[in-house]
Amino acid sequence: MKTVFMFPGQGAQEVGMGRELAAGGGEFAQLYKQASEIVGYDLGEVCFQGPEEKLNRTEVSQPAIFVTSAVCLEALRKGKMGDELAGVEPEACVGLSLGEYTALYASGAIRFEEGLKLVDLRGRSMQEAAEKRTGTMVSILGLDEEGVDKLCQVVLEEGIQEEDGMETLLKPVNYNCPGQIVVSGSIRACERAAEKAEECGALKAVPLKVAGAFHTKMMAPAAEKLGEALGKCSFARPRCKVVANVDGRVYDGAEEIPAKLMKQLVGAVRWQQSIEYLLDEGAERFVEIGPGRVLTGLVKKITRARKQKIEIINVSG
Question: pTM higher than 0.85, yes or no?
Answer without folding.
Answer: yes
